[in-house]
Amino acid sequence: MNEKIASQLPQAAIFDLDGTLFQTETLLETVHRRVFDTLREEGLYEKPQPPIELLLGSLGMLLTDIWHRVMPDGSPEAHERANVLMLQYELEELESGCGQLYPGVAETLGELRSRGVRLFVASNGLEEYVKAVPAVKGIADQFEALYSAGEFATATKVDLVRQLLDRFGIEHAWMVGDRSSDVEAGKSNGLFVVGCDYAGFRREGELEGSDAVIRAFPELLELLPQAGE
C-alpha cells in the first residue's frame, strides 16, 4: 500500500465489483468457453476462441465495448447473442457454486460497516449479474444499494457514480476499484480513490491517479485510523 492516505473517515465507500470484490476469472474461464462453444454450434462465430485474457482485460468496460474488443470480427448478431449467453452462463455458474470473492472481502466489509461507513457497489455490468454475485456470495446485505450501468443505462461510470452520490446525499466517499474507469469516476466526482492492485489482469498504468493503492482487500482498514484523525 502506498503512503498517501485519506484525511477523514468517509461517509461511504463505493466499490467496483469485478476485480475488486469478486475474483472474476474464477467464474469467467468456464463462461468464456461456454459462450464461444455455443456461438460455434449456432454458426454465429467460426473462428478460434479468443484468448480469455482479452475478456479479462476488458472488464470494467461497457458490455457492447467488450465484444468489440474481444470479437472485433464478429457480426452484430454474434455480439448480441454473446450478451445473452454471457449473462445466462454467468448466472448458471454462480448458482452452481462457481466463482470466489477475494480473501477477506466479507470480513472487511463488515468491519467498515461497523465503523459507520455506508457501502455501495457501482459497476458497468448488467443489472442481473451485479445483483446476483453479492446475493449468491452472501454479502448483499452489507450494501445499501447495488448500482449498475445495465439498470441505469449510463454511458460512463462517472455518470453512474454521480447518480448514486446524488440519490443518497453523499458528499465525501471513497471510490474503490481496479480499473481506469474507477479512477476516472472517483476523480471526476471529487472522491478519494483507492486503486486495487491484486486482480492480475489490469493494464499497465491502469491505476494512475489513485490516492492510495492496496495489494490486498483488507488493507482498506489500514486507511481508516488515519482517515478519522
Automatic annotation (TrEMBL):
Cross-referenced InterPro entries: HAD-like_hydrolase_sf, HAD-like_sf, HAD-SF_hydro_IA, HAD_sf, PGP-like_dom2
Enzyme nomenclature, EC number: 3.-.-.-
Listed GO MF terms: hydrolase activity
Keyword annotations of the record: Hydrolase
Enzyme class: hydrolase
Membrane listed as a keyword: no
Pfam families given in the database record: Hydrolase (PF00702)
Protein name (database record): HAD family hydrolase
Species assigned in the record: Cohnella boryungensis
